[in-house]
Please model this.
Amino acid sequence: MITKAVQQLLSTIVPGGPIVKLAETCYKVLSFLIEKATKIVEVTNTVIGAVNKVASGKVTDAANSVETALVQSIPVFLGFFPRLLSIENLAIKVKEWLSKLKARIDNFIDTLLNQEFNWLSKFPKGTKTGKLKPPSNNNTTASPSNQPDHDNKVRVGLAQIDKKETTYSNNIFKEWQDLEERYPEGSEQS
Model:
């Protein structure tokens, strides 16, 4: 980002720099238009079709056509502006940023849960929060680790949590893949 700013500044100071910058911008725009010509023609045809439908009185069909045109134009615009501004691999950078954000949020949630667990573990089983029961000398109740099936129940519960977390992660991954398939131009940067 700093490198781009320095290049921009130097291009305005050097004699002929603005002309070179203009030529570079024109090249980027033309190469994008050539590369995405079929997509741009599709969007244009959809808009023209919508205008024809409005002229013939088919307002509902025209509204659907305009919506389709807008949906088709989003990936085109999302591909154009980063290239014009020389922002390379925008989709990859967004994915990396989201992954880092997710890791930080997961870490924060884990920390909160651990703190809550540590706080709750101070209270003996069967007491209400805030009212500690003094330990009794008669050990008539078994501690959780001495109860039969305790460890097995804990293992089953943890396995269920892992299964739910895996399912959740897989669903998010599938949704991300669906978005990439639906809008492939947003992820192609050159």
User: Anything to note?
Assistant: Confidence is low (pLDDT under 50) at residues 186-190.
